[in-house]
Amino acid sequence: MEVLKIATAGSVDDGKSTLIGRILYDTKSLTTDKLEAIEKTSKQKGYDYLDFSLATDGLVAEREQGITIDVAHIYFSTRKKSYIIADTPGHVEYTRNMVTGASTSQASIILIDARKGVIEQTNRHFFINNLLRIKDVVVTINKMDLVDYSEDVYNKIKADFSELMSKRDYQDQKITFIPVSALKGDNVVNRSENMPWYKGESLLEHLEGLDKKDIYNVGTPRFPVQYVIRPKTEDFHDFRGYAGKVYGGELSVGDNILVLPSKTRSKIKDIYFYDEKYQTASRRSSVTITLENDINVSRGDMIVKEGDLPTIDKQFTANICWMDSTPLEAGSKYMLQHGVNKVLARVEKINHKINPDYSGIEKNVQGLGVNDIASVTFKFNKPLFFDQFKNHRTNGSFILIDTQNNHTVGAGFIQ
Amino acid sequence: MSLKVKSLKVKSHKSETIHDEKNKIMKKDTSKINSLENEAIYIIREVAAQFEKPVLLFSGGKDSITLVRLAVKAFYPAKVPFPLMHIDTGHNFPETIEFRDRLVKELGLELIVRNVQDSIDAGKVKEESGRYASRNQLQTTTLLDAIEEFKFDACIGGARRDEEKARAKERIFSVRDDFGQWDEKNQRPELFDMLNGQINLGQNVRVFPISNWTELDVWSYIEQENIEIPSIYFAHKRKVFLRDGMIWSAEDEVVYRDDNEEVIEEMVRFRTVGDMSCTAAVLSEASTISKVVEEIRDSTISERGARIDDKRSEAAMEKRKQQGYF
């Protein structure tokens, strides 16, 4: 079964939880006991409609405040696909949650309140989708029932949003506009009869139609070695397998490869998934590879195809999203985790801050606060093997870890 | 009772080329492998690589049996490089215990068992009494003591985000403090595939490799892999009684029953298997794995709808997690 992970972004009260609740309801994914709980609570609160947001707002604090404050994952499936929705909050302080949710998503839904149109928050939501290079973005114009299902309102918002699109640096992104009413169910799962002027697909129809090529960029294969498998049993006395996940492209038996950082040459002998051998390891599969030569390979090394080398260097410049209340400053040291590799990294220079609403950059920055996005140059104590984020979503990204408390304090996209 | 006996080592989903060694290798690529399986194997390998003393928490339920299968696949042809640990409430279904012992023996795994009864005897926890008495909550103390005893730094568990709304926010690597507690407001963000397993002394990490699986995904996987599971998951005749709209086993003394609660015989199966005292049965005719998969697909009741421990209050799960519950 194909799995599609979708990030959602909307401002407070744009009706994001209601939209998700509606999808669950119309795809019959809400079970009787959940539905009963929603009916009961809606009644207690004196609502005259079902409050679907109760299906997704998980934590007690959220139910009390009525807002979503962390990334929640919601699951549903159709006969065609399994869906995971990362429900990420749209409140201004929570850029980090949006970046987090979007980092593992292949598609994204941006919500706009039809009565409010494109607001500052929308710029931020779109900026993050752009920064993370989400390939398929659906701009969902919600609450159409409250603007009399007006085509003019829809067209105005579409035009305003298109202006934003001209500012983005990732032009391959596919953007689709859909007018919906999450509360009433128009164009969410079923097409609306209230908007005969809209000829496009419903939101779910659009998602159902997304193909692998619509959501993944093709890159070069990278195989970071996660774990060395040495059974040392009688049957597998000399077995030396390299376990890991294949990113970006595929690797096949017989491929000429290099092991980084030593650049030792070898050939792929066998590809295992459990006890079966395969000719080709497809992207994102967790396989075990054996090599023709008996060479020394350990965790953190990377197997790449000969002639397809990443950059090998002890420094890079990256756009980072800072996620911690303690500021990042020039000279600070962090543990930098790049895939399965960890190095000690020093901040050489904060080049500039990037306003996440397309309003430009700020130079002469002293430190970065939580939710700041900036271009930063790092130096490390040993070389990393990396690609630019725009060419390789996995091998072009990293996280920063505080060396004192071990928290994940930042995420980076290599330039 | 219908006992489904299948060898634990048997595999299914063989392609037609399986007996033809040359064809098999020439034709196949790994693109058909379930992406959830790839993800879980990646996570389990990260645990083995990043931690010094990991353990797999094994309850005998379908989710932890699935985890064992994934761990076996992750390290083949080497053995699983960490032990299994069962926190035994003493109120487990006998079928589960019998199954557990056979599984570890067949797969050659190491099993550690720690008993809630010992925590009760030591006066660390107090047995609940009354109609809804359960040892489910008491497990937490025994678990935390065992983590301390063995100095485990990572505990792999079979919790899934779709089970319950507080679990929907759980991380894959979820850091617990010295007291084993979960601070839901101070969770580490998890980006891309990168799992940050750095911890301070005294902390440990709960790891959930099947976070992104749904109940249906687990059942489909059990069917696909032909994994043996305890017989109580399949429809069988059982003496039961009704309370609060749920079906309780009347065959086991640990389930409290009032004298006026009438015992009837029904065809039932268990959809989730926890402690006997907090696990209700569902009416079912599903006697094979494929019928169970069909039943789950068409079901309109959520899995934990049959868990009385979640019904105590709307925030029941969240509160237990903060206290260190699994």
Automatic annotation (TrEMBL), chain A:
GO terms for molecular function: nucleotidyltransferase activity. The keyword GTP-binding applies. InterPro entries: CysN_GTP-bd, CysN_II, CysN_NoDQ_III, G_TR_CS, GTP-eEF1A_C, P-loop_NTPase, SO4_adenylTrfase_lsu, T_Tr_GTP-bd_dom. It is an enzyme of class 2 (transferase). Gene3D superfamilies: P-loop containing nucleotide triphosphate hydrolases, Translation factors. Keywords: ATP-binding, GTP-binding, Nucleotide-binding, Nucleotidyltransferase, Transferase. Residues 1-222 form the Tr-type G domain. It comes from the Bacteria. Pfam families: GTP-eEF1A_C (PF22594), GTP_EFTU (PF00009). Its EC number is 2.7.7.4. NCBIfam families: CysN. This is sulfate adenylyltransferase.
